[in-house]
Amino acid sequence: MRLNLSDSELELLFKMKIKSIFILIFLTFFTFSVKAEIAYIDINLILKSSKVGKFLNDHIANKQLEYKDMYTNIENDLRNKEKSLIAQQNILNKEDFENKLKILTKEVQKYRSDKQSSYDNLKQFKIDNTKKILKILNPIITKFVDSNSISIVIPKKNIIVGQKNLDITEQIIALLDDNVEKLKF
């Protein structure tokens, strides 16, 4: 089957073929003339394994444990108050019982609000201090990349398979540990 094309359509098709060949030759030449050094890095491992990362994670874990103990004690007190109030339900007149119930309900609401606020503040504390670590980490990575002629650094979470020798995480952890061990809170 033969297509019936006009002269202008044939000319356009010919120009497109020439452009495609030119682009293919250019890309091939460019690829062989420029060698890009690529590396990858595991930021999560740095935040867990570096001295400053461990310091932050330990601090947060201690705060979580402290909050857990404190709020467990408050919760137990509230349960005891509830049991006591239920035991007094038949003894107290209806008005006194409802007043004590309102007071207990307000205490429970305050407990929930305080607990949520504490954990939200801790979460924000972790985010803020992780940003501080990343701010310290950025010039370290930049200096390492410049001194080792690396063109591109890709996060490890975006890599499916990669050669182990392209992973610069351990070198960056060592450099970070040399620069900072603790954060000031």
Q: Care to describe what's here?
A:
The chain is mainly α and 185 residues long. The chain has one domain. The protein has 5 helices and 2 strands, in the order H-E-H-H-H-E-H. The protein has helices at residues 7-33, 43-49, 51-87, 94-147, 169-179; strands at residues 38-41, 152-155. A two-stranded parallel ribbon has the order 1-2. Helix 2 (43-49) crosses helix 3. The longest helix has 54 residues, at 94-147. The chain starts with 6 loop residues before the first helix and ends in a 6-residue tail after the last helix. The mean pLDDT is 88.
Describe, in short, the structure shown:
With 185 residues, the protein is mostly helical.
Q: What topology emerges from the helices and strands here?
A:
Layout: H1 7-33, E1 38-41, H2 43-49, H3 51-87, H4 94-147, E2 152-155, H5 169-179
Parallel strand pairs: 1-2
Helix pairs in contact: 2-3, 2-5, 3-4
Give a quick set of tags describing it.
185 residues, mainly alpha, two-stranded parallel sheet, 5 helices, 74% helix, elongated
Give, in spatial order, the strands making up the sheet with the most strands: 1-2
Oligomer: single chain
Separate helix tally: 5
- Which regions are unreliable across 5 or more consecutive residues at pLDDT < 50? none
User: What's the overall geometry?
Assistant: elongated
Please write the string of helix (H) and strand (E) elements: HEHHHEH
Q: Please tell me the total number of domains.
A: 1
Query: What is Rg?
Result: 32 Å
Roughly how much helix do the residues carry, as a percent range? over 70%
Which structural class should the secondary elements be placed in? mainly alpha
* Strand residue percentage: under 5%
How would you state the average pLDDT, rounded?
88
| Strand elements, count | 2
- Report the end-to-end length measured between terminal Cα atoms: 78 Å
Taking the sheet with the most strands, its summary is: 2 strands, parallel
